[in-house]
Amino acid sequence: MGVAGPSGPVLDRNEVDRALARLGAEHEAIETSLLALQDHAGRRLLEGAELTGITKERWVTAEASITLLWAYFDAYADALRSARAIRSRRRWSSREDLADLTELLRGESVTVAGSASATASAPTMAGTGKLSERFTLAELVERMNELYATSLDMVVTADAVWSALPARIDLLAAELQRTRRLAHSVGVRPGEHPSGDDLERITRTLTSLREQVVSDPLAFWAPAQGSSAPGGGRPDTKRYDREARALEEVRREIDAVLTVRQDAEARLVRLRDVLSRADRTLAEARIARGEVLAKIAASEVPAVSGPSTALQEQLAAASEYRRHAQWHRLSPLLESLEERAEDELLRARESLTAVTAPLAVRAELRGRLDAYKAKVARHGFAEDPLLVERYDAARRMLWSAPCDLRVAEQAVLRYQQAAAEVLVPRVPGNGGPQDRRGES
User: Fold this and answer.
1) Domain residue ranges of the chain, discontinuous segments joined by +
2) pTM of the prediction?
């Protein structure tokens, strides 16, 4: 180590050689990186694209930074060549040579001059009012690293978005066109079906989205949290994903329409059968109501409504839709009709049950009366005068028309009570049930 100078202690020959070797390696690495940046597909695309928005703003800065990078690199290479020339003068460098080399390698020996257009947008010289700067070689390397990182980040980010989103948008647009052709074939058209309107909206959105992605890719970038590496993050696909989901919903709707086209006739046949069963059940209920009114007295019988004309009209409309291949109209109508037809059949069955309830009550009373008569006969009391009298009274009421169910039920209860007294023996002297077979 020699006497200290303006740049610190004078370097000896070994230190100079090591410094030149390190600087030479850095020179090669920087040159390789700059050439790779120059040839990067993203940079070439940025140069030829009509940019807008944030991408245009950042590319102006990045382009100036790249220009300045080459100016810095040229100055760095010149300084390195000068240092090597001084070192190569003689095998054993003199003190004056070592002092000059120390100044070159450690002092602010590098002057970078640039045009106003090249430095106006560069982040390092913009706003300084200077068209040249002086650096040490170490400072120059640090400055080049900073400019390279920011420029590469911008280029890599734009290239990543362009590599991902336009291709995906094009694939989705192709799927959209296939879906539109299929939709038109089944009558799903704009202004006639909501899904047709959705297809038009998706088409407009995808066209606009692609134009925006191509002209302003940085607007579709989501940086990674806490990442400082160039290109850290991923393309923002939220708008694309939303349209992809919308197209999938439309596709499901069209599939439903296609399914309707395939099994429409079978579904219409089933609908006609269900409505026919409902009409027959209502007709049966009306006949049963007349029978009940004629045979049962003092009973409230609900009225029976006629068949649903609205459902019949809608069924006729569904048949017309099928005849004219209006599948997009037929699909929702069939679903509604199937649900309402089942409800209509259920209503008819409930109506029949309601109007025939008095007949069911009469049948239950008749069955109960005959069951008790059979039980009494098995115990040998078939000829009991009281039982015969009460049985005959109850039977006349139940087998006469019109039948008063309330009076008939009381008659059956009286017969049951008399039968119970006969069948349950009494203990003499205790006032309990007695066996009346001796009396008879």
Assistant:
1) 4-156, 161-260, 261-355, 359-423
2) 0.56
